[in-house]
Amino acid sequence: MKTELSQKLGIEHAIFGFTPFPAVAAAITRAGGFGVLGAVRYTAPDDLARDLDWMQEHTDGLPYGLDVVMPAKKVEGVSEADVEAMIPEGHRAFVRETLAKHGVPELAEGEASGWRITGWMEQVARSQLDVAFDYPIRLLANALGSPPADVVARAHDHGVLVAALAGSARHARHHAEAGIDVVVAQGYEAGGHTGEIASMVLTPEVVEAVSPLPVLAAGGIGSGEQIAAGLALGAQGVWLGSLWLTTTEADLHSRALTARLLAAGSGDTVRSRALTGKPARQLRTEWTDAWDDPAGPGTLPMPLQGLLVAEAVSRIQKYEVEPLLGTPVGQIVGRMNSERSVRQVFDDLTRGFEQAVDRINRIAGRSTS
């Protein structure tokens, strides 16, 4: 499963795996793919350095990357406290009422919220980069589009390729103009933040829009046959995220959440602003329903919504309050019906890819004979 991009990066398979779990990212790299560690949950540079040290020790000298979340425009002088002050009291009351309705216990006194994600704040993301460039990362991806121009230049100075996610051909062209090296065409089916266009339509549009830049297909891909389809549409690889959530190396800290993922079908997700303030595909729960209900206060824009619900999400997950328990995940969750190791997932992906290629070759042979 080699493409020009995979050969440039020195990987066996053109499979790029995004994950918040270092053990999963390292296993993806060792399996012959390209592990990409998500940095958004790291609030302290030392914590990121600790896990990158671990990655160094467990990737056998093979390449890996980092995914950050930062806006294209520099925003200076805004602290977390400044942002907190912008959250209306009515929205805080709605959170309290929803949690009370479901009997969600409080966190213990002094216990920090594990979901207090501040990596979207520029100063935090930049501190992450200060750490990351001390390591031999080969790719820097940004989940909010093109990073600021000085970040792109800094990455290039370190010999690091820069990737950015796009939900439309227009976004992809902006990335190309900003000097991005790899565009991830993320379709509507994907987990997390997505646009409105499905992968089958989006991928070839983006390929055409930014040619000759390499494009990775993302969204609704969880089998070797779907990888083959993405490459047939012109992509030079695939970007997979949701599929790794139910691997044995993943650390969701909740057996109830794992069970929900394993039981979910492809129709059990919803694009909701409930988690971050931007449309993000996730398991549909009574929590997402509450925020999407027109009778409610409505969600706040990013980053206010993320800070507003951080403690609530931590409480829901800690106490495994099943009606509210969810996570970002794509429609491919319908295929995630057993716990397997990353290596087993890779074996299934490569086997399915080979079968798909053989099938197409047979069809092409008959049609041209």
Please give a structural write-up.
By secondary structure, this protein is of the alpha/beta class. The chain is built from 14 helices and 11 strands. It has an 8-stranded parallel barrel, surrounded by 6 helices. β1, α2 and β2 form a beta-alpha-beta unit. The protein is globular, with a radius of gyration of 20 Å.
Short descriptors:
14 helices; eight-stranded parallel beta barrel; three-stranded antiparallel sheet; globular; alpha/beta
Describe what is shown at a glance.
Helices cover 42% and strands 13% of the residues. By secondary structure, it is of the alpha/beta class.
Which helices and strands, and how do they pair?
Blueprint: H1 4-9, E1 15-19, H2 22-30, E2 34-38, H3 45-58, E3 64-68, H4 80-84, H5 89-101, H6 122-132, E4 139-142, H7 149-157, E5 161-166, H8 169-177, E6 182-186, E7 192-193, H9 199-210, E8 215-218, H10 224-232, E9 237-240, H11 255-263, E10 269-272, E11 280-283, H12 286-292, H13 304-318, H14 342-368
Parallel strand pairs: 1-2, 1-9, 2-3, 3-4, 4-5, 5-6, 6-8, 8-9
Antiparallel strand pairs: 7-11, 10-11
Helix pairs in contact: 2-3, 3-6, 5-13, 8-9, 10-14
